[in-house]
Structure formats: C-alpha cells, structure tokens
Amino acid sequence: MENKFIHVLLFVQLLVLTCRPVSGGGDGVVVSRADYLALRAFKQELIDFKGLLRSWNDSGYGVCSGGWAGIKCVKGQVIAIQLPWRRLGGRISEKIGQLQGLRKLSLHDNVLGGPVPVALGFLPNLRGVYLFNNRLSGSVPASIGNCPLLQTLDLSNNALNGSIPSLANSTRLLRLNLSFNSLSRSIPDSLTRSSSLIFLALQHNNLSGSIPSTWGGTNRTYQLKLLTLDNNLISGTIPSSLSKLGFLEEISLSNNQITGTIPNEIGELTRLQKLDLSNNAINGSIPATFSNLSSIVTLNLEGNRLDNQIPEVLERMQNLSVLNLRSNKFTGHIPASIGNISGINQVDLSKNNFTGEIPASFSSLPNLTSFNVSYNNLSGLVPSLLSKKFNSSSFVGNLQLCGYSASTQCSSPPSQNITLPTKEPLKKKHHHRLSTKDIILIAAGVVLAVLLLLCCFLLLCLIRKRSVLKGKNSKTSKQPAAGSIDKAVPAGAVVSSGGEAGGKLVHFDGPFVFTADDLLCATAEIMGKSTYGTAYKATLEEGNQVAVKRLREKTTKGHKEFETEAAAIGKIRHPNLLALRAYYLGPKGEKLLVFDFMPKGSLASFLHARGPEMIIDWPTRMNIAIGVTRGLCHLHYQENIIHGNLTSSNILLDEQTNAHIADYGLSSLMTPAANTNVIATAGTLGYNAPELSKTKKSTEKTDVYSLGVIILELLTGKSPGEPMNGMDLPQWVASIVKEEWTNEVFDLELIRDVPIIGDQLLNTLKLALHCVDPSPAARPEAQQVLQQLEEIKPPEVNVGSADEGTEVPASATE
Ligand SMILES: *[C@@H]1O[C@H](CO)[C@@H](O)[C@H](O)[C@H]1NC(C)=O
Ligand SMILES: *[C@@H]1O[C@H](CO)[C@@H](O)[C@H](O)[C@H]1NC(C)=O
Ligand SMILES: *[C@@H]1O[C@H](CO)[C@@H](O)[C@H](O)[C@H]1NC(C)=O
Ligand SMILES: *[C@@H]1O[C@H](CO)[C@@H](O)[C@H](O)[C@H]1NC(C)=O
Ligand SMILES: *[C@@H]1O[C@H](CO)[C@@H](O)[C@H](O)[C@H]1NC(C)=O
Ligand SMILES: *[C@@H]1O[C@H](CO)[C@@H](O)[C@H](O)[C@H]1NC(C)=O
Ligand SMILES: *[C@@H]1O[C@H](CO)[C@@H](O)[C@H](O)[C@H]1NC(C)=O
Ligand SMILES: *[C@@H]1O[C@H](CO)[C@@H](O)[C@H](O)[C@H]1NC(C)=O
Ligand SMILES: *[C@@H]1O[C@H](CO)[C@@H](O)[C@H](O)[C@H]1NC(C)=O
Ligand SMILES: *[C@@H]1O[C@H](CO)[C@@H](O)[C@H](O)[C@H]1NC(C)=O
Ligand SMILES: *[C@@H]1O[C@H](CO)[C@@H](O)[C@H](O)[C@H]1NC(C)=O
Ligand SMILES: *[C@@H]1O[C@H](CO)[C@@H](O)[C@H](O)[C@H]1NC(C)=O
C-alpha cells in the first residue's frame, strides 16, 4: 500500500518536473497580497527544524517564480503547497483558508501537531489533501465535506479522534484514507452512497457499530475497489448489499467482532481478488456461490467459527494463491480440487476437524511453499512428496496420520490400501445406483447423437445443392479461397460482371467471394457518413457481413486512374489497416468500396458513445494506441502513403478491440478539390496540425500530429471535437499540465489505476504532447512513436494482432 501511495506522489511530481509549460511559466507574476499574507501566517505557525523554509524571506516577489520552496502558483494565486518529508513541526494555520486558489496541500511525513484546519472546508478549488504520517489530533473537520472538487483526503496515521463526518457534499472524492487514527463511532451511511469513491481505507481505528447495509442503494455505478475496515471494533453481520459494489477488488474486515454468516451474494463480486474476514466470530459455512469468485487470489477466513464441509467450488478459483482456513470448525474431507489450483502457494487448514486423507493432488503443486494441516482428524499416509517438502509441524496433531516423520511410520509397509477404510462398501453401493442412472443417460445420449448426425447430413446435402446452383449462375466468379487456381486470373484477384446492370466488380484476396448481384442485393444499413461518402453494413446471403463505402459522386478521379489507384490500395495488407476487399464500378459511374466489417465500430463511438458501466481499461487503450501507430508506420514506411485524415472515426475496432485504420489511400482516388475539402473538415474536428491551415498539404508530420491527438483522446477520454474553454484538445491538456494538476487530464477511469500504471500514463502523455508540438520539425516520426510506446508498455500486455486471411499481396486486373 505504502509503495502504491508513493507512486502517486512521484507521478504528480514527475509531471510537474517533466512536462514543461508550453509558454510563460510563473515568471514575473507577482503573488496576490492576500495569498502572500496567508503564506506568511502559515509559516509563522510552523516550526522549521531544518531551516528548509529560509527561502520564504522576501516581500513576495519570489513566491510565484520558484523562489519559495514548495509553492506553485497560477496567475499570482497559490495553487499548491508541497512540503513533504521536511521535518516540519508546529501546526497548520487556519489562515490557509485565505488561499482561495489552493488545490493541493501536501505536508505528509512531517511532525505536525494540532488540529486539521477547519478552514480547509472554505477552499472551493481544493482537490488533494495529503497530511498522512504526522501527529495531528482532534477530529476530522466536518467542513471538509463542503469542498466540491475534493478528490483525495488522506489523513492516515495521525492521532485523530471523534467520528467520521458525512463528506456527502464532496461528490468527487476518489480516495478517503483515515486509517491508523483513533476515530470512533460508526461508519457514516453517506459514504456508502458515494458513486465516486474508489478507495475507502478506515483500518486501525476504534470504529464501532455495524457495517452500513446501504451500499449501492441507488441506481448508479459504484466505483469502490478497496474497502479496508480491519482492526476496529465493528460488530454486526456482513451486509449482503456489499455485493452491489461490482468493482470491489479487496475487502478486509479482519480483527473485528463480526458475527453471522457470509452472505451468499458475496459470490457476485467477480472482480474480488482479496477477501480477508479473519479473526471475527463468523459462523455458518462457505457459500456455494464462492465458485463465482473467479478472480480471487487471497482468501483468508482464519479464526472464525465456520463449519461444515468446504464446497468443491474451490476448483474454479484458478488464480487462488493463498488459502487460509486455520482455526475454524470445518469438517469432512479436504477437497482434492484444491490440489488442482496449479498456482497455489500457501495452504493453511490447521486447527479444524477435517477427516480422511490428504489428497494426493497436493503433491504435484510446483509453487506450494507453505502447507499446514496440523491439528485435525486426518488419517492415512501423507503423500511422500509432501512429507519430504514440509516438516512434521505441518502434520502434527492428527492421531491417525502417518509417514511424515520417523516416529510416525505407518504400521504396515506403506501402501495405499492401508487407508481404504470401512467406507468402501458404502461407496460401491453409491456407484452401483449411479450407474443405472448412467445407463439411461448414455442411451439418451446415443439417440441424440444419432439424430444430430442425421441433421448434419441433411444440412450438408442442402448446402452442396445450393452452392452448385450458385456456381452455375455466376459463371465469371472464381473462388480463390477454394484453392482452384486459375492461371488466367492472377492470384487473389477476381473480376466479375455486375449481372444485368453491366457494372464491374473487382475482388482482392479476402475471406469470402461474392458477386456483384450478391453485393447489390445485400441488405444494407447505413453506418455513417464521412467526407468520402456513406458507409453501409451489408449482410450477404450466407450471413457474412462486409462494410461498403459508397463514394460521393463527382469527387473521384476518372475510371482508369481510379482503378490503378484502387488496385494499389487493394494490395495493402497489415493487421492494423482495414483491408480493401473489392471495389465495384457501376454503369452510371457509381463507385463502391468493400472492406472488412468491424463489429465494434469506430474508436470515436467506442470511447465517446458508451454506457456508463462500460469501462475501458488502460491495457485496452494502450493496445489501440500501439495498433494505430503500427498501422501508420506501415503506411509511411512500407507503402509510402500519407493518411491525411487520421481521426478516431477512421479507426475501427474488431472483436478483440484491435485497431484497424480505415480511409488510408483514399485521397489518391479523389480529385484534388475533394481532398482540400477533407482537410477542411478534419480541421473542424480538431485533428489537423496547425500548419495545415497555411500549407493545405498533408505530410508525415501532420499524420503524427493527428496520431498525437488520438493518443490524447485515449488518455483523456475527451473528444477533440468538443471545445474546452475555446481550446482544442492539445491546448487544453497543455494548459492543465501547466497548472500542475495533471490528474485532471486523465480519464477518471484511468485515475483509479494510477498507483499501478502511473508511469505509463505519464510517459504516454509526454509522448503525445511531443506529437502535437506546434512545430512540425519537433514532432517525432511514426517509427519513434512506436518504439517509445513499446518501451512504455509493460511486457505482460499482449498486443493481439488481427486475423488476416492471407498476407500474400494481391493484384487486380481486368
Ligand atoms: C492509507 O494509509 C495507510 C497508512 O498511511 C497506508 O498504509 C495505505 O496504503 C493507505 N491506503 C490507501 C488506499 O491509500
Ligand atoms: C532569501 O533566500 C534566498 C534563498 O535562500 C537567498 O538567495 C536570498 O538572498 C534571501 N534574501 C534575503 C533578503 O534574505
Ligand atoms: C480527542 O482527544 C482530545 C485530546 O487529544 C480529547 O480532549 C478529546 O476529548 C477527544 N475527543 C473525543 C471525542 O474522544
Ligand atoms: C451539503 O450542501 C447543501 C447545500 O449546499 C447543504 O444544505 C447541506 O447541509 C450540506 N450537507 C452537508 C452534510 O454538509
Ligand atoms: C475505543 O472505544 C471504546 C468505546 O467504544 C473506549 O472504551 C476505548 O477507550 C477506545 N479506545 C481508544 C484507543 O480510543
Ligand atoms: C436504473 O437505470 C437503468 C438504466 O441505467 C434503467 O433502465 C432502470 O429503470 C433504472 N432503475 C431504477 C430503479 O431507477
Ligand atoms: C450463528 O450464530 C448465531 C449466534 O451468534 C446463531 O443465532 C445462528 O443460528 C448461527 N448460525 C449458524 C448458521 O450456525
Ligand atoms: C455464478 O454466476 C452465474 C452467472 O452470474 C450464475 O448463473 C450462477 O448461478 C452462479 N453460481 C453460483 C454457484 O452462485
Ligand atoms: C488471473 O490472473 C491473471 C494474471 O494476473 C489475469 O490475467 C486473469 O485475468 C486472472 N483471471 C481471473 C479469472 O481473474
Ligand atoms: C509458479 O511461480 C512462478 C514464479 O512466480 C511462475 O512463473 C509460475 O507460473 C508459477 N506456476 C504456476 C503453475 O502457477
Ligand atoms: C470432529 O468431528 C467428529 C465427528 O466427525 C466429532 O465426533 C468431534 O467431536 C469433532 N471434534 C470437534 C473438536 O469438533
Ligand atoms: C494391498 O493390496 C495389494 C493388492 O492390491 C495386496 O497385495 C496387499 O497385500 C495389500 N496390502 C495390505 C497391507 O493389505
């Protein structure tokens, strides 16, 4: 936890250091008189043991120009005080309430005493309060709940007492950490209704009462990932409403006085990785619904009154690494399925009432480093691999268990049948009864299988008949996929006449072949309109789907030129480029382009038109960014093509959310006039490099600019189309980075992962800002962008590549 925390801080500070403001800085801006006086008063109440505030000496000219340590300003207003690890004593002045622009107060890891200033509640811009690891006393001021923008309140590890205030009006609060204090009374219900909270850490206090039962009360998405209430005086039962917190990854309720049973609904928390209920007074048995806790890594139920058998469900917890059931009242056999959890490394089942043998499956667990079944009623022989690996303390206290030490030799030569107990006849009976049932089941199965086979056979006949018919109808259509290579037609290219209409269809290699009639008669629905024309989703006879783009009339080049250019585009194959599969020239000059259909639509709609519960995590976004960059590299270096219109609407996503760039090369099909029009439209959408307004000529560098905007779009979740205080997206991001509240740049969904991915976000942001540099010469090349993204991406993120039917270049002729 501590590490994670430091990470966040580093992250914020790194940004401050590395992302230089685009212009100006604070130089020459004089701090306002009110702020100057407030800082003077603030300093007066501190005790500066190490003289680290000596720089706070002049009459105010240095405050905002970097002269005063730990002070950041914007336009003459103090926005941040950051003085952690300075051995500062004394107390925090109430005068701090006069710093109306203050956003961040970071004084953690000092020796500050006195109360948390009530005046913090009067700061309308306050976002972050980091006062942990000090000696603050008194209560948490209720006023702090009036800060509408507060995101982080960390007062952990102080000497605060009294109760936890409501904080209901801080509707942006993401992280509340009041752990390691002496707070008492019960947990306020208001915290259970916060739809913004991600971390709620209240462990090691003196909290009493029961856990509120009002979690997830209203119809909103609850973000809470971490709930730690351990080491308090909490009583009552575990509320089943916890199950409404679908994002929960960690629950710790250990060392309290919780009673009652574990609610069945806990099984609904499919993202839960850690569940610690140890050292309470919980009774009943492990609910069968636990089988749905498929993400669980640590399960600790030690020191309770749980009884009954452990359900076999454990076998679905394939990520389980630590299982601790010590000191309960479990009975029955140890499920052999635990031994099938290949990655498990700690198993403690000691001090229960387990009977039977230790399942042999445990001996084949490679990573098992700790194993304890002592003090149960186990019997039989300890599997020899286990007795070699673990010493006798793991097995003692089981009177009928043998073979784990010299003094516990099994009475007769060790052999498995020694432990086959009296139960055998019973087992046999059981088997017998089952097998009658089995016979009936098997018979039913055979009948079903025969029926199915018959069905398949009939279906096959039908399909064959149909395809024969089709072959007759469209004589000119060849099927390269079928492997009948006709020397007359170059590999992969198929030309067919457009039936009666007299158009022409030219195929490039691809997963399916269709005739012009197939295409023209397909059911189609409009997907969208772009500068080049209208896009349709067409469903062919067999149910296959393709995307068809009908180019605007009078915008394309003449026939001959068009066909030459289209043939070139049809040859391009790359996992991150949308493949052109065919084109159609109609008798009246209409032009259709046929592409693969991408089920997840455009990146623009994926990012900006999704439901509230759809979260796009960072690895997915990174995968998209890398995919787009790879596609662009292929265009720039292999095909020598400048895209000229790279936008998030032109990036399409397949089933696995891999990016495919669309609309590349299309400018070569268009007249110059039409292309100018494209540039103008893209400009209004916010993807155009500034120099384009003068030069009107796309270059590799203008493509890189658009790429940078798309990466910013992935980072911020904001659409470049929507104006932000009159700034475009790059300007907006730069302005916020300059104001040093960089967390606000990122999509809220990503912030919760900052402890883990902070560096990646930061480095990607830097790279993106580099790409959108106003000066084309300063921008990197696509290849460099790719290289850097691949360095930023951690190795475990798998960048999947899309399925390509074939990589063989195709050519098209008449
Ligand atoms: C809360 O504070 C404690 C003590 O400072 C720390 O160990 C823990 O990691 C923090 N938790 C969160 C979620 O910030
Ligand atoms: C104020 O402090 C700075 C940095 O410690 C120092 O360079 C400067 O001379 C001091 N000014 C006065 C008036 O003491
Ligand atoms: C909190 O602690 C202070 C001493 O630091 C004490 O005077 C006060 O009564 C305590 N308040 C509560 C509610 O326990
Ligand atoms: C929240 O704000 C409203 C209106 O600003 C106020 O009436 C209410 O008392 C506040 N609630 C708390 C708990 O501070
Ligand atoms: C915790 O609360 C109980 C009463 O609820 C009180 O008796 C005890 O002194 C408190 N302990 C601390 C350390 O504040
Ligand atoms: C909850 O929200 C969903 C859509 O977000 C809506 O269909 C449903 O009616 C809402 N239910 C209640 C009880 O408000
Ligand atoms: C759990 O314990 C309570 C008393 O503390 C008792 O009323 C209840 O019946 C027990 N439940 C089970 C399932 O044993
Ligand atoms: C697990 O979850 C699925 C789907 O959410 C549900 O149908 C099933 O009943 C659950 N299993 C148990 C044992 O609760
Ligand atoms: C198990 O852990 C791996 C690696 O941490 C993760 O990728 C996977 O999603 C986890 N499985 C489940 C079911 O959570
Ligand atoms: C055992 O641990 C090693 C190292 O932590 C890991 O690479 C390996 O995948 C683990 N084995 C299993 C079966 O989980
Ligand atoms: C353990 O279970 C046996 C029956 O299987 C029972 O006789 C015995 O009392 C139990 N011991 C404890 C400590 O619960
Ligand atoms: C164990 O079973 C084998 C045959 O499976 C038999 O030869 C042997 O005598 C048995 N051992 C004992 C101790 O019963």
TrEMBL record:
It is a single-pass membrane protein. GO terms for cellular component: membrane. Residues 791-814 are annotated as: Disordered. It comes from the Eukaryota. It is found in: Membrane. The chain crosses the membrane at residues 439-463. GO terms for molecular function: ATP binding; protein kinase activity. Its main location: membrane. Pfam families: LRR_1, LRR_14, LRR_4, LRRNT_2, Pkinase. Keywords: ATP-binding, Leucine-rich repeat, Membrane, Nucleotide-binding, Phosphoprotein, Receptor, Repeat, Signal, Transferase, Transmembrane, Transmembrane helix. CDD domains: STKc_IRAK. Residues 521-792 form the Protein kinase domain. Residues 1-24 form the signal peptide. PANTHER family: LEUCINE-RICH REPEAT RECEPTOR-LIKE PROTEIN KINASE IMK3-RELATED, PROBABLY INACTIVE LEUCINE-RICH REPEAT RECEPTOR-LIKE PROTEIN KINASE IMK2. This is Protein kinase domain-containing protein. It comes from Rosa chinensis (China rose). The lineage of its organism: Eukaryota, Viridiplantae, Streptophyta, Embryophyta, Tracheophyta.
